[in-house]
Design a protein that fits this description.
This protein is α+β, with helices and mostly antiparallel strands. Helix content is 31%, strand content 17%. Helix 6 crosses helix 8.
Amino acid sequence: MHHDQATAADGDARRDGFTILRGRVRPETLRQLEALLDQEARSLGAPETGRRVGRATAGGDYRRYSNGVDIAHAAVGDLLDDLQLARTLSDVDGRAWLLSQVFVFDLSAGDAGLRWHSDFRSYAFLPATEHAWTAWVPLDPVGPDDQHGGVAVVPTTVYSGTEEAKMFAFTCGALDDMEYIGKVMAGLEGFNALRNLLLDKAAIEPAMQPGDTLLFDRFVFHRSMPLAEGPRRSRRALALRLVPADGEYRPDIHRTQQMLYSAAGVPPHDAPIAHLMGDVAQGERLSGAPGLVPVR
C-alpha cells in the first residue's frame, strides 16, 4: 500500500475520481459535528428511530454507526457552507448537486469497518453509469503515521467501478435466468479475490487531520483502514452522499439489486432516499424531490 502524503495522495477529482479538500472545515463546525455524532450515538438502537446501527451492518463492522442523520440538521448545513462543494464539483462537471444522506461512524480498535467496495448499491436508485459523490469528514487524525483508521482509495486511472456497476445492473435485469444467476454467484469469489489483490497493491492511504475532507466519486473503490492499537480509543467520522440534481430517479434498479444480493446471502441495503422523494416518479429528475438539500 502506498503511504504517500504529498500531492499524489491528495488526488485530482477529474483525473483520479477523488481529491482531498484540506482544512476547509472550521473548528467550530467540527465541534458541532462531534456533538451531532454523540447525539446520534445516544439514540443508537432506539426502535422508533428506524436507524440501523452497530456491528455487521451492511457488511461493515463499527463500534457505533448511523445512516439516519437528519440531512437538514444545522450542523450539516454549516459543514456544507464550509466545504463549498458546489464550487468544487462544478469545476469537475458543471452540474448542480443535492445532499441525499448523512452517516456517522465510530471505529474502535478491532473493528473491521468496510472492506473494498465501490458504491453501486449505495446509489442503486440512479442509472448504473451515473456519477455521484461522497464527502468523508474525519473528526480525528487518521493515516499511516498515526493509528491508521482512515479510508484507503484506488484512483480510477488504475481501476474503476464503472464496468462492475454496468455488469451488476445487467445482472439485476436477468433475475429470471436462474442458471445465469447461479454461474455469476459461483464466479464472484474468484473475481473479487483477483480484483482485491490489485486494489491492495494500488491503494493510497492519505493522512488527514480534522478539518480535511476526502471527496470521492461513486466508482472509486475504497475501504476502511482498521484503527491500530494506541492512545486513541476510536476514530469518528461523518460522510455526506451527493447526487446530481438532473439525475434520473430509478427505484426499480434498487429493488432488483436487493433481490440479487438477497439471493447471494448478502445483508439487505436501505432504500436510502425513498422517504425524501415525495411525488417524484420513476424516470423523473431528482431535482423535484422535496426532501433533498441543494449543495451550496
